[in-house]
Amino acid sequence: MGRDHWKKIWIGSAGNMVEWFDWFVYASFAVYFAGAFFPEGDDTAKLMNTAGIFAVGFFMRPVGGWLLGRVGDRKGRKAALTLTVTLMSASALLIAVAPTHAVAGYGGAAVLLVARLLQGLSVGGEYAASATYLTEASAPGHRGFASSFQYVSMTAGQVLGLGLLLVLQQTMSTEALHSWGWRIPFVIGALGAAVVFYLRRNMLETEVYEETADAGVAPGRQGTLRALWDHRREAFLVVALTMGGTVAYYTYTTYLTKYLSNSAGLPKQTATLVSFCALIVFACLQPLAGRLSDRIGRRPLLVTFAVGSTVLTVPILTMLKRADSFWPALGLSLLALLVVTGYTSINACVKAELFPTGIRALGVALPYAIANALFGGTAEYVALWFKNAGVESGFAWYVAGCAAVSLIVYLTMRETRDIDLARVGATGGTGAPGPGPVPPVRKETAVDSAS
Predict the structure, then answer these.
(1) What is the pLDDT of residue 1?
(2) What's the CA gap between 121 and 343, in Å, rounded?
(3) Which of 142, 124, 6 is nearest to 57 (CA)?
(4) Which of 17, 318, 372, 450 could cross-link with 153 by S-S, CB 3.0 to 4.6 Å?
(5) Domain enclosing residue 47, as ranges
């Protein structure tokens, strides 16, 4: 991979990291600001209220996926990425200044809700824009490796958020964190997004988009729902293959800290440290798995994830609930995230490889956002609902069931590793979209030859 490839990956990943820092600190700091906006009820009830607003943000993601996916296909990946980070900066600033219940009653919760809706709009477009950008910006034969940096940067954003939480837990009193300390990460997130806005304004567009922006769709229909309907099979495939992965991912990332403190009974500081250490290892695994997929294909990794998640979720969550110290909790968390890596490391490029250039951003964005709204965004709320109902073990079976459904999809889908992005959905003389990817064409590079 050349210098230009790495520059595109760096800028795309840095922006993605800040986006997801802002998205995840909401979940990480919820235990401290839940009482500020929802003072009534026990700890679980307060967390359910904040988790409900967390889930609402996901239901804006399909809107963001449609709007920003359209921008990405019609105006370019760079334009979509710049717009997403602008929205995220505004939403983080809103949360930072939101009035508490003591000051404005439930007006503060309303501000929190509006901010979360803006975040959902932003992230709904960010995922697809960055997935498409990183996949198109990579060298031939290295798409799995390059696109894996999407989850490296996503995880880095969460690690930074947890790291900041650990620092604040060590340097501030619990009372101060509950009172005003929880606002600090949102101020930092707003400032970080402003810096990324500058970087993205100067980023390079991908060559694939510049050369084949209208490929695979009729003239003037780039980024439209009509064009997406022509590729509805691939769109439904994105929803189905995302289902199990997104539930498992959010279970072992955003919900893990709460599960360890609220169910296993570990101190909040210990639970946070477990998540922090596990996510660092998880981030390091992504490029390794992505590179492996460039060698052996995408389907073997997806199938391994689905089998592992279906079989191991119930025992892992059961043992995590009984973990009484740092090391057992960390070991089980690492095992869970190792399994999830089979999905996270390559799901970005798999989805991007399904669509032609003219509909790729929207094709990834909208179906993925719908799947996340239905399954990923509700994972934490469903988990807390099972706990509140006294059948917490039911959530583990729910996660395993979602993975089992995705397993069926992985076993029946085609391999996408060798598809030429510039020729996906190649058109005939009429300009009508073709039935799907043309026969695989893989360009051998010097790296391929050497290896």
Answers:
(1) 67
(2) 24
(3) 124
(4) 17
(5) 3-204+232-419
